[in-house]
């Protein structure tokens, strides 16, 4: 290895949390496709119409084919900056701009729950619905549990199980253990808080 | 995946322009700082603006050129939303001075899929590649049964990736794995 290579690969220390987080974002971060498509399409349409109108007029075609130029010019002359319409449009544009800015700057929700990975170049994730199925099966595998419904939130997993048994106190512990074990094996990057309730119901 | 950053950048720039433009116009209309922005009770396109636009041909030419540039950029941004097709081949050595060895992407992904599907823990696996042929990125979708121990699924995934890395002659070959759970 030459000196330059050593310098380039000098950061051989264990992968930092920041690098791991960035890799997760790159793989599972929101892509913002919908707002981008809408914005790009509207921008393209507006720019094409404006360009066509201006170029058309420059090469001698009669103005006003694509844009009501005459009406717009009259509007510009008659409207004053303190008119309600101008203020309303200006505020609307500012609000729209703020919305786009927030969409761009806020980190957004991940499309999958990241799992711990022992390899810095491998990003592992599981979709919310799949985690739900996985945890539900773990809860149902406990003897005495009929059904289990699971809700997965950002920081918590909520399990509601139904049992035909009268004494459900010990069962709650067992379901908690089974779910915890499954989560430990799955190893999400941020371990969620687990809450279990078992209700008695005879069918 | 390059479009993610482009989207963020594009939305931020357009948002900032709209926000600042809208705010400036509103502040002028409300006559908060007339000294700097001009009087509020005057036409939006004042006499000076109209005279300037009428007298200067280059203003219209510049406006046309600007609109064409914006239109092209916007269309390119729109086009970037389409998923880029996977590279059909993957290049082995990054150093092309001594000739390049390439592998078919299909052969690599098929090998990973067969590898995972042959094991007892994975019900179905699909593999794909994004990026370009010099810097491919592996994408794996691995479906397991809800009764499978996640640790077993994980180790067979790592084994498959390790084998793919040996084939690709790249110990750091990056990969994104989505674990799916189906009955």
TrEMBL record, chain A:
- What InterPro entries does this protein map onto? DUF6286 (IPR046253)
Per the UniProt record, the lineage of the source organism begins with:
Bacteria, Bacillati, Actinomycetota, Actinomycetes, Streptosporangiales
- Report what the protein is called: DUF6286 domain-containing protein
Could you list the residue ranges that cross the membrane? 84-105
The yes or no answer to whether the keyword NAD is present is no
Return the annotated region ranges for Disordered. 1-24
Q: Where is the composition biased (Basic residues)?
A: 15-24
User: Domain DUF6286 spans what residues?
Assistant: 95-199
Entry-linked Pfam families: DUF6286 (PF19803)
Q: Which UniProt keywords apply?
A: Membrane, Transmembrane, Transmembrane helix
Q: Among its keywords, does the record have Aminoacyl-tRNA synthetase?
A: no
From TrEMBL, chain B:
Keyword Membrane (UniProt): yes
Tell me the keywords, alphabetical order: Membrane, Transmembrane, Transmembrane helix
Ranges that cross the membrane:
57-78
Organism domain of life: Bacteria
- Protein name (database record): Alkaline shock response membrane anchor protein AmaP
Q: What organism does the UniProt record list as the source?
A: Actinoallomurus iriomotensis
Q: What is the lineage of its organism?
A: Bacteria, Bacillati, Actinomycetota, Actinomycetes, Streptosporangiales
């Amino acid at each position: 290895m030459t000196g330059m290579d050593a310098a380039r690969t000098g950061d051989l220390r264990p992968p930092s949390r920041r690098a791991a987080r960035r890799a997760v974002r790159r793989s599972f971060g929101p892509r913002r496709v919908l707002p981008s498509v809408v914005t790009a399409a509207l921008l393209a349409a507006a720019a094409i119409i404006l360009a066509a109108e201006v170029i058309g007029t420059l090469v001698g075609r009669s103005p006003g084919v694509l844009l009501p130029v005459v009406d717009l010019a009259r509007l510009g002359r008659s409207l004053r900056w303190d008119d309600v319409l101008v203020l309303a449009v200006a505020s609307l544009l500012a609000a729209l701009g703020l919305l786009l800015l927030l969409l761009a700057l806020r980190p957004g929700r991940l499309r999958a729950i990241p799992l711990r990975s022992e390899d810095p170049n491998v990003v592992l994730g599981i979709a919310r619905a799949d985690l739900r199925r996985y945890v539900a099966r773990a809860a149902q595998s406990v003897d005495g549990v009929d059904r289990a419904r699971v809700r997965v939130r950002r920081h918590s997993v909520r399990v509601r199980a139904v049992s035909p048994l009268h004494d459900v106190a010990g069962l709650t512990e067992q379901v908690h253990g089974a779910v915890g074990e499954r989560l430990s094996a799955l190893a999400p990057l941020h371990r969620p808080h687990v809450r279990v309730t078992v209700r008695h119901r005879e069918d | 995946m390059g479009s993610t950053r482009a989207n963020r950048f594009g939305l931020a720039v357009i948002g900032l322009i709209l926000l600042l433009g809208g705010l400036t116009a509103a502040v002028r209309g409300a006559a908060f700082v007339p000294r700097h922005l001009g009087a509020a009770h005057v036409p939006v396109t004042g006499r000076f603006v109209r005279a300037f636009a009428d007298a200067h041909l280059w203003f219209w030419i510049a406006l046309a050129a600007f609109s064409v540039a914006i239109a092209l950029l916007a269309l390119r941004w729109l086009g970037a939303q389409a998923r880029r097709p996977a590279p059909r081949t993957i290049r082995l050595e990054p150093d092309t001075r001594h000739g390049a060895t390439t592998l078919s992407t299909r052969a690599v992904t098929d090998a990973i899929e067969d590898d995972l599907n042959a094991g007892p823990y994975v019900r179905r696996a699909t593999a794909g590649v994004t990026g370009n042929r010099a810097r491919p990125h592996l994408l794996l979708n691995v479906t397991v049964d809800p009764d499978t121990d996640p640790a077993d699924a994980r180790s067979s995934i790592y084994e498959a990736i390790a084998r793919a890395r040996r084939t690709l002659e790249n110990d750091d070959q990056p990969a994104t794995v989505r674990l799916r759970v189906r009955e």
